[in-house]
Design goal:
The protein is mainly alpha-helical. It is 60% helix and 0% strand.
């Protein structure tokens, strides 16, 4: 059985009260997730639309509006999301939810990769077809 993002958050936060090495590893893992998310989002934005020039607000504007490249914008968005506790979930919840579904199917499988397939624009029917093909590949010898 695979863990969902809420179970992972609880386990990581519980682990942080442990020793220094565990705290460092948890921090490194979370930093890597943020970096991977920024890269994913950059690629999605590159594929879907050209970068519009950054428009500075009067008196300098917010750093969040000053990105000059797709990667800068994606990284700022991902980094800010870690700190954004607006809404029902905190920033860490929001980040991990992009990698780990909130629920599993009837056999306890989360199909993590399908979250990105959905973000890439695959339809629910195409994702179901992917699952069928992937399950068949697991069974074939």
């Amino acid at each position: 059985m695979e863990l969902n993002h809420e179970e992972i958050i609880h386990a990581l936060l519980a682990a942080r009260s442990g020793n220094l090495q565990v705290n460092i590893l948890v921090s490194l893992i979370l930093d890597l997730f943020m970096e991977v998310e920024a890269l994913r989002e950059a690629l999605i934005k590159i594929d879907n639309s050209p970068l519009e020039p950054a428009v500075a607000e009067p008196e300098g504007g917010s750093i969040l509006n000053l990105a000059k490249s797709t990667y800068q914008r994606a990284y700022l968005d991902a980094a800010f999301e870690i700190h954004n506790n607006e809404g029902a979930y905190g920033g860490l919840d929001k980040l991990l939810a992009k990698f780990y579904p909130s629920s599993a199917d009837d056999v306890g499988r989360t199909w993590r990769e399908c979250l990105l397939l959905e973000r890439l624009g695959f339809s629910p029917a195409e994702i179901d077809e992917y699952k069928t093909v992937a399950q068949a590949a697991e069974i074939s010898s």
